Every structure is written in C-alpha cells, then in structure tokens.
Known about the structure:
By secondary structure, the protein is α/β, with parallel strands linked by helices. It folds into two domains: 2-161 and 198-224, Rossmann fold; 163-196 and 226-290, UDP-galactose 4-epimerase, domain 1 (Alpha-Beta Complex). 41% of the residues lie in helices and 20% in strands. It is built from eleven helices and twelve strands. The protein has helices spanning 11-22, 34-43, 55-63, 80-101, 135-146, 170-182, 200-213, 230-241, 257-260, 269-275, 284-287, and strands at 2-6, 26-31, 46-49, 67-70, 107-113, 153-159, 162-164, 185-188, 194-199, 218-221, 225-229, 245-248. Strands 3-2-1-4-5-6-10 form a seven-stranded parallel sheet, with helices on both faces. Strand 2 (26-31), helix 2 (34-43) and strand 3 (46-49) form a beta-alpha-beta unit. The longest helix has 22 residues, at 80-101. The termini are far apart.
Amino acid sequence: MHVFVTGGTGLIGSAVVAELLAGGHTVLALARSDASAQAVKAAGAEPLRGALADLDVLRAGAAQADGVIHLAFDHAFGSPDTLAKAVAEEGGALATLGQELVGSNRPLVTASGTPRVPGRASTEADPLMTQGPVGGRARAVTAVLGLASRGVRSSAVRLPRTVHNQGAGGFAGLLTDIARRTGVSGYPGDGTQRWPAVHAFDAAVLFRLALEQAEAGTSWHAVADEGDQVRDIAAVIGRRLGLPVDSVPAETYGPLGEIFAGDQPSSSAHTRQALGWQPKHPSLLEDLENIQA
C-alpha cells in the first residue's frame, strides 16, 4: 500500500514508518518543518509539508493514499487550555481524514489510549473514557470507529501509558524529565498504581498489522507490560540519575495529575490471539536502564 502517515517523525511514528517500509509499503509522511521533511527523506519516505491544522493538506495526503495511519498530536502542553487546544486540533484532523475516506473501504488506523477500568486490567472490549482532561480524544476516536458504517475500514490501536525506546517516551519519560528538573524521582500517591507499557518497535508492528488486517470498527491493545507499579518505575529512574525517590503531589504533573495518579493496567490477550502480535523488545523496566545520568 501507499500509506499516508501523520506524526511520522516522532518516537512512535519513526518506528511505524520504518516498519511499513520494511513490510513493502511506501510512505507519504506529514512534515511540519524542513527538519522533519529531511528526517522523512532520510528514512526512505516522501514528505508532505504541512501541520495537523492544515486540513487541506490532510485531505490531499489521504486522497492519494491506499490507507492512512494517524499518530500526530501536539504534546507541547503545560496547562488545561493548551491541552484542550491540542485535543481539539487532533479531533478536527481525524474528522477531515475520515471524511476523505468515506465510501472507499480504505483503512484508517488511529492512535488511542488504553482505557482505565476500576479493579482490573482493561481489555479491547472496554469503551474509552469520554470524560476528563483527554476525553475529547476518546470522542474523536469513537467517531472514527463509527465510520465503519460509511465505508471506512477504521480501527484504533490503543497505546499504553508509556511507549518507550532507549529509556525515553511516554509517562515514564515525563517522570524522567521532571526528575531531572526537580532533583527528585517522584511518583504520585503511594506509587502502587500500575501503568502498562510497550516498546515503540513492538507498537509499530501492531500499527502495520491493523493497517493490513483489522476489520472495520475494531480496537486493539499495544500492551506488552500489563502494568508496572509507578514507584518501581521511579526507583529505576532515581537510581540511573542518582536522585532520591519519593512521593510527590499529583499537582506536580499539571493537567495530567489525575491520570498519573490512577491505577490503569491493561491486557492485550485478544490482540495477540486475533492478529498474531507478539512483543519481542525489552520491557519498560529493562529499557529504563538506558537512561543516562
């Protein structure tokens, strides 16, 4: 397939582009800067200049593709207002991509997050939470899956709280950044809450499988580690950085504090059985050993 990818130069996106190319696909990747365009070319893909807010560019990219994978999201948020803006921007982009594909039976694979279910690990059958700081993302993904009834082979790859590579990425990466800045490797509450995780290279394989195989309207879990306790994550970060490890207020994490404090393990049993996905790369706790002081 000729695949249009948004977010193709990020930690996850660069792994997805490499996986698609290795699988025999060609890639057109959205690039919002000259540096991103050069990175896309260096990876062996074709850049399409534009940003997530450039809806005409998104339409053009989707129109010339056999399938679309959406990964872009503005993570440069530090307040509820900037987070809401990023969520709204992504929602507009997804609506545009989906509308362009209506009636074509082409695949549209979007990224989502694993849901939080009190008392147990979430599964692929659980609905997304449409309330809270990032509820708008869930509503946008739900709308994409609804396009299955309008001739779009839409699917969602639900990503865990940490998608990592070489110790960087996801919620664990944010803990590392905050630890460097504050001098304490912190965790909210008592740290017994569990976060699921996956290596970026393993997640990339699942995006390719969803593009190639997923039935319309389906959701899949890119979960390798069902749930590591956050205090164990913080302990590795503290040891690698030579910093003390301690509980800190949830407010330390800004608009994500409520999410950081929640217990949210997740399962991928159905995904592994149905799509034959099998994670092979290091676990989160193993990968965090790559953090450099």
